[in-house]
Each structure stands twice: as structure tokens, then as C-alpha cells.
Amino acid sequence: MRWGADARHALELLCRYITRPALANERVQCNAAGQVVLKLKTPRRDGTSHRVMSPLEFMQRLAALVPRPRLHLIRFHGVLVPNAKLRAMVVPQEPVEGAEAAQPAACEVNCAHRRPARMTWAKLLKRVFALDLERCPNCGGELKIIAAILEALVIERFLTHLGPQARATPRAAAREQALQGA
């Protein structure tokens, strides 16, 4: 589908669609015991209409929906496919560096189109959640990253030491659930 710049209603619907959250706010509530109650879109065959879980379990399940880094989520078709013959005619190309290319002036280096497009994760968290991870909450000093833990066993040990459940509860395959319900 394609909409022009004057099709404001269609563009608004598109923007609402692409910025929608993983869960509707109306479906998530907290009960008196402090547990998260998730209302299912449609009741299951056994009549289950809500799922009750601890806040940590809810966050684990929500985090499982986040795709891995550098995983392509957009599929291109037609001339936008990476190996399309006509792609060079449609997609803007970087200027060729050569003897003819003039060096950018000092003011152009700091222009918006020359800056990197991505923000650091700390700046994104500050913008979205108002969490300043660059400053210490106690003294206001600068914080530094001292380690990035990527090994699953080490992460499990840290989580187990801190108290929360280190592994999410295992889920059965969708096919097995359908056969069990029949």
C-alpha cells in the first residue's frame, strides 16, 4: 500500500500500527497480592481467560519477545531486494571518494546529516524511561560500564544469587498444546 503526504488519516493509522506496544495496557493489571494479571485475547478451551504471574516472570516473558540484535525484521521486495538488478537506480548511493571529491568544511562535519544516526542505549533509556544511567544516583558522578556479561551460565549465577528465577518456565510447543486440548 502507498499513501500520499495529504492522506493524513491513512498515515495516522499506519503510525498507530507501527508504534503499538507488545501488549494493550487494558489487558495488564496488578492484583492485591502484587502479581501481574494478564487478560488473554480469547479464552482457551478449558475456560482460562487470565494468566497470573509474578512481576519478574512477566518481565521475563516480555523480554523474550524482544528480537536478537542485528536480526532483520523487515523483508524487502521488488527493486529493494539486496540483489535486485535495478536497486542501484532506486536506492541512493554513497558518493565515490576520489580526487574530485572535496573535503567537507569544518561546519559540515557537525551537521545533522553527518552525525551517527544511532543513540547510545543509555541515552535511549534516559529519553524513554527517564533513567539516567550515565550518572550515579547517590553522588552524581559519572558511571562507566565495567563489564558486559554475555555468557548464559554467568548470567544464571548472578540471577540466582540475587534471588529471581534464573530461567523462564519452559513452554510446550504449540503443536503439542493443540493435540493435548483435542
Radius of gyration using CA atoms only = 24 Å
Structural class: mainly alpha
Distance between the termini: 39 Å
DSSP strand count: 3
Q: How are helices and strands ordered from N to C?
A: HEEEHHHHHH
Classify the helix fraction into a percent range.
25-40%
Round the mean pLDDT to the nearest integer and report it: 78
Major β-sheet annotation: 3 strands, antiparallel
Strand order of the largest sheet: 1-2-3
Shape: extended
The number of helical segments is 7
Low-pLDDT segments, ≥5 res: none
How much of the residues is beta strand, in percent?
5-15%
Features:
single chain, 182 residues, mainly alpha, 31% helix, extended, 3 strands, 3-stranded antiparallel beta sheet, 7 helices
Give the arrangement of secondary structure elements.
Blueprint: H1 8-18, E1 28-30, E2 36-39, E3 50-53, H2 55-63, H3 87-90, H4 106-109, H5 121-129, H6 152-162, H7 174-181
Antiparallel strand pairs: 1-2, 2-3
What would you note in describing this structure?
The chain has 182 residues and is mainly alpha-helical. Among the domains are: 1-65, no CATH class; 119-163, no CATH class. It has seven helices and three strands, in the order αβββαααααα. The protein has helices spanning 8-18, 55-63, 87-90, 106-109, 121-129, 152-162, 174-181, and strands at residues 28-30, 36-39, 50-53. It has a three-stranded antiparallel sheet with strand order 1-2-3. The longest helix is centred in the first third of the chain and has 11 residues, at 8-18. The protein is extended and about 60 Å long. The mean pLDDT is 78.
